[in-house]
Design brief:
Strand content: under 5%
Distance between the termini: 21 Å
Number of helices: 6
Helix content: over 70%
Largest sheet: none
Low-confidence stretches: 1-12
Mean pLDDT: 79
Structural class: mainly alpha
Length: 160
């Protein structure tokens, strides 16, 4: 891997612009992301795996995190109005025991609390999404670098 990144060659808007501002070399970045993977995905260290495979595991975790944050951020798909309407009909049903109605009221109350708390923290989910996105872009960059290096090694071996 290239030992030192040339910070002057980074154009604004580059997917790896944050990486170039934080890490002084590709090796430093690789070490950071392999260590991060060890914390996030310790099971990938229970068997012998290449650095590329461990980066792939980390990328999958980051993609799944982003999908989860995006789903929570899109809370508007949950229709509280429909929940309340259905709950009202259920509460008016005299064939349902009072104990069951109280249990249902607790469940719906918890659900509405969850929705309210989620909507209060949407800015945090956006922030967590962006952090995961930046890390995922850096991991993709490293994967591309490792693939390029392995291709170069294979072509040089073929020449020998």
């Amino acid at each position: 891997m290239e030992k030192v990144l040339n910070n002057q060659q980074v154009r604004p808007g580059s997917a790896t612009q944050f990486m170039h501002a934080i890490f002084s070399s590709d090796d430093e970045m690789l070490t950071f992301y392999l260590t991060l993977n060890r914390f996030i995905n310790p099971s990938s260290y229970l068997v012998e795996r290449s650095d590329g495979r461990r980066l792939e595991d980390l990328a999958n975790v980051l993609r799944n995190n982003m999908a989860a944050f995006e789903a929570v951020h899109n809370y508007k798909n949950i229709s509280v109005k429909d929940v309340v309407r259905g709950f009202g009909m259920h509460m008016m049903n005299t064939q349902v025991s009072n104990a069951k109605r109280l249990q249902s009221a607790d469940i719906v109350g918890s659900f509405i609390d969850c929705i309210v708390n989620t909507t209060k923290n949407t800015w945090q989910f956006k922030q967590m999404y962006l952090v995961n996105y930046i890390h995922l872009e850096n991991v993709k960059y490293l994967q591309k670098r490792l693939n390029t290096e392995s291709d170069e090694e294979n072509s040089s071996k073929a020449l020998i």
